[in-house]
Amino acid sequence: MLNVLWLGFFLVGALSAGVQWLVLGDEQVFSRMVTSLFDMAALSVQIMVVLFGTLTLWLGFLRIAESAGLVNTLARWLGPLFARLMPGVPRGHPAIGLITLNFAANALGLDNAATPIGLRAMRELQTLNTQPDTATNAQILFLVLNASSLTLLPVSIFMYRLQQGAPDPTMVFLPILLATGASTVTGFLTVALMQRLPLRDPVVLLWMLGIALGFSAILVGAAGLGTAALSRVSSLTGNLVLFGVIVTFITVGAWRRVDVYEAFVDGARQGFDIARDLLPYLVAMLCAVGVLRASGALDILLDGIRWAAEALHWDTRFVDALPTALVKPFSGSAARALLIETMQHFGVDSFPALLAATVQGSTEATFYVLAVYYGAVGVQRARHTVGCALAADLAGVLASIAVCYWFFG
């Protein structure tokens, strides 16, 4: 999938450039494309400098939480819920702890760190699979929740905004939280419908009620605020939660006699390795997206969508953020490249850039996740995975648009 997508970016860019030159007489299009290649390669290295620090930092704190037993504690709390949502997984099975750790990494926005943990969880679930080529109900629920982008602290998005010069990187915290909530709830409910999960069970109802009350409180609190106040509240909440998580991890670790410094360094070392391995993929996708933008192909597509929106008398500012939304189901790295390009093209705090950041934080690369997770265990029949995951993606995009018009419109 990534090979086809990457090749397609260059071929479409070449075709568009040919039209610009031969039909429209634009001889400078090739100069812009070559310049974009080198500019994007340089930008990739600049981004990696920040990414190295971000991943090493957060994986270090996550290792402290794991060593302090916070992950196991969370697994015990979630045990009764998982027993009902994944009845085929025995209580105390190693998959439960790994699933919990994977969700924790996703919640902190460490999508690249969450992947190796998720692969371990999928392998453990596969040990319970009596039909190895067919996805089990537990595997489908786990993958769809991953594909719904269950993100509570989108630190990667904050990092990209910081790198692009945003004076307030956490301004998109609440919009992403609300949009990812819509995405996750949609993914969960579609799976529950297909698998006939016991949603009326008291334990499940209690968890659903607690989550619903939490989001309702956010909505009620935000309803009476203006755009400027919403941005300030989102920023303050994001920073408080972020620092609160760090203090909690360190304090609990020290209380439980964990050598927090050594644990942090051990986890940070893993983050360094992950960040290093990402550079070739980031260069490849950013350069391909740069060529696509410089060729004019992306502008042609967006102009068509903008024309249709204007015909329906809609506000068209959302159109410039759609490249990230359209590409995200196929490739997270390509969507990340488009997000960064949108920030550079329109400005880091422009409406398109804020919407693209919200979409990036509330959706997932569905086909990539499906290929990697199922491919790692040899599953060929995905059953209802794709439909449920794409429904979650659509809900995330639509919620992102609605929430960003509310917060930043």
Structure annotation, total helices: 17
Q: Report the average pLDDT across residues.
A: 79
Helices and strands, in order, run as: HHHHHHHHHHHHHHHHH
Give the number of DSSP strands: 0
Uncertain runs:
none
Envelope shape: globular
Distance linking N and C termini: 35 Å
- Structural class based on helices, strands and sheet pairing: mainly alpha
Helix content: over 70%
Instruction: Specify Rg, calculated over alpha carbons.
Output: 22 Å
Largest sheet: none
Structure summary:
With 409 residues, the protein is an all-alpha fold. It has one domain (26-408). The protein has helices at residues 2-22, 29-67, 70-85, 94-107, 111-126, 137-147, 155-163, 173-195, 202-223, 227-255, 260-295, 297-311, 322-327, 332-346, 351-362, 366-377, 385-408.
Characterise the protein shown here:
By secondary structure, the chain is an all-alpha fold. It contains 17 helices and no strands. The protein has one domain (26-408). The chain has helices spanning 2-22, 29-67, 70-85, 94-107, 111-126, 137-147, 155-163, 173-195, 202-223, 227-255, 260-295, 297-311, 322-327, 332-346, 351-362, 366-377, 385-408. Helix 6 runs parallel beside helix 17, helix 8 (173-195) packs antiparallel against helix 17 (385-408) and helix 11 crosses helix 14 (332-346). The chain starts with a helix and ends with a helix. The mean pLDDT is 79.
